[in-house]
Amino acid sequence: MSVYFKENPGFLRASLESIFNQSHMPDEVVLVKDGPLTPELDVVIEEYRKRWVDGFHIVPLEKNVGLGRALQIGIMHCQYDYIARMDSDDICYLDRFEKQVLFIAQNRNISVLGTGIMEFNEQPNDMSSVKILPSSNAELVKYAGKRCPFNHSSVMLNKAAIIAAGSYQEMPFLEDYYLWLRVMKKGYEFANLPEPLLYFRIGNDVIGRRQGWGYARNEMNLFWRGYKEQLISTGNFLYATFFRLPLRLLPKKALSFIYHRLLRQQTA
């Protein structure tokens, strides 16, 4: 987990609480402080450090380096072969780790395992929609050429595979997608559990952050680099140019409709 100064202390507490209440407890939690934090965030982190003295490892960075670099540093501080990702404003289902660990124990060929997510606004009982992605490696390899194949904060990763692919790198807002493409090129296998095991917070203007020229430029940079590095095909690069780019330039209401009505399963 990476935390920076703009995070909400209440959201962070809920996220950490969901980790510490897992039916299958992690052997360690590595939290990267991406630069100086607010006193309120430090209070929350210290509270959980005291609750789990031996297993809660804090990696403080002198300055903010961005999510990609912070996660790269965090991975190098992880001691075990498999790493579960978590964002500081999302909430795990209580059996998330148990189900992922069991699946990986039975499928050692899988290097990245994601899950579905339940999207919510401010509280988990204020559910908006469900996002379920393809399950098999063959489906995900095909899917990854056009869209991100994982819900990032739901994944469990094979540390060796991630390092072999170059780990997280700088790619604003899309660090995970760029990593999955490189892991895929190395021949490692993917899977998703076809059920939601994470509450994903969308209330904090998530659509606004994925709309406009700024995000469109970041996305085109990803696809251009992916094309140059032979991570995606010419056809998928053209798809991104003529379909994804115009989507990012739609008004927020129109983009929100596409996300929540056409690309998601509604909860009610």
From TrEMBL:
Query: Which InterPro entries does the UniProt record give?
Result: Glyco_trans_2-like, Glycosyltransf_2, Nucleotide-diphossugar_trans
Any idea which UniProt keywords this protein has?
Answer: Glycosyltransferase, Transferase
Q: Which domain of life is it from?
A: Bacteria
Provide an example Pfam family for this protein.
Answer: Glycos_transf_2
Q: Which residues form the Glycosyltransferase 2-like domain?
A: 6-156
Note the Gene3D superfamilies from the entry: Spore Coat Polysaccharide Biosynthesis Protein SpsA, Chain A
> What is the protein name for this chain?
Amylovoran biosynthesis protein AmsE
MF (Gene Ontology): glycosyltransferase activity
Q: Which organism is it from?
A: Chitinophaga flava
- Similarity field: Belongs to the glycosyltransferase 2 family.
